From TrEMBL:
PANTHER family xrefs: ABC TRANSPORTER ATP-BINDING PROTEIN ALBC-RELATED
Family matches, as CDD domains: ABC_DR_subfamily_A
Domain ABC transporter: residue ranges: 8-241
Name of this chain's protein: ABC transporter ATP-binding protein
A Pfam entry, by short name: ABC_tran
UniProt superkingdom: Bacteria
Family annotation (InterPro entries): AAA+_ATPase (IPR003593), ABC_transporter-like_ATP-bd (IPR003439), ABC_Transporter_VariousFunc (IPR051782), P-loop_NTPase (IPR027417)
Presence of keyword Transport: yes
Keyword annotations of the record: ATP-binding, Nucleotide-binding, Transport
GO molecular function, one term: ATP binding
Amino acid sequence: MEERMEQLICENITKNYKSKDALDSVNLTLAKGKIYGLIGRNGAGKTTLLSILSAQNPPSEGSVVLETEEGRLSVWENEKALSHICFSRELNVGKNTALSATKVKDYLRTASVYLPYWDQELADELIRKFHLDVKQKIGKLSKGMVSMVTIIVALASKADFTFLDEPVSGLDVVAREQFYRILLEEFTETGRTFVVSTHIMEEAADLFEEVIILKEGKLLLKENTEELLESCLHISGKAEEVDRATEGLEKHYEERLGRSKSVMVRLKPGQELPDAEVTVQPMKLEKVFVALCGEEA
Ligand SMILES: Nc1ncnc2c1ncn2[C@@H]1O[C@H](COP(=O)(O)OP(=O)(O)OP(=O)(O)O)[C@@H](O)[C@H]1O
């Protein structure tokens, strides 16, 4: 019987670069069979986290452990653990680099050698779906086509834990929708775990069972997306009414305009808003993110 990977655990990960502390004591457990959205402002530490989770980058402190039926395997320098993890990074092609001169088919062939569960049939299907010219050099591809190459590597890797770093950043809206559909199909068929970092939250929010938010190198929250959105409310109205309605609640992003005021509250389980003359509106993920990670006015 095929061995199943259970969860990937990130224990107290800190990463200090020379001039920057990129991650600060991050504890995180990624369960089998979920799609996670990883969000955070520029420089929050998303890429650093994914590179540490996949052992492409050593942490300054802490460890990453793959928990299996057979026991706990440290991910660092452990071929068996790493065979179940794929981080398909954004490609920095650059001019006149070895990568820019590499043909797509050769890049994919190299990936197929390194990734032990590579599915060539799936890779070929995705190449067709994305209309990708595999004879083309990577340096000659458009930004979106380069993103497609990283998406193909991620999906065809068939790794139990697959990380994609801003996969849709260069894609047009049609290709983005196509990517979300393909990802969901692959997820439904296989129950693999995906972590997808993105700045384009709204259109991907339905895809994420859980969201992970990094803020300045710290894990701000990891929560079921639906529950997070249910708990966050936008309250507006006369300032004194808003104050009365939100007293004692967790508040973010207060904005005052003359005598009126608006604020986001995040209700804890069991908490309710008192009756008050205020307008209460549900919030979309992007607005919740801005309220949690944006700069207060
Ligand atoms: N190799 C490195 N050397 C020094 N500092 C680095 C290195 N890589 C990242 N950093 C710094 O660590 C911090 C986190 O960077 P990281 O790339 O992980 O952020 P991110 O959340 O992925 O950002 P973005 O959304 O802009 O891609 C940033 O301040 C960045 O400048």
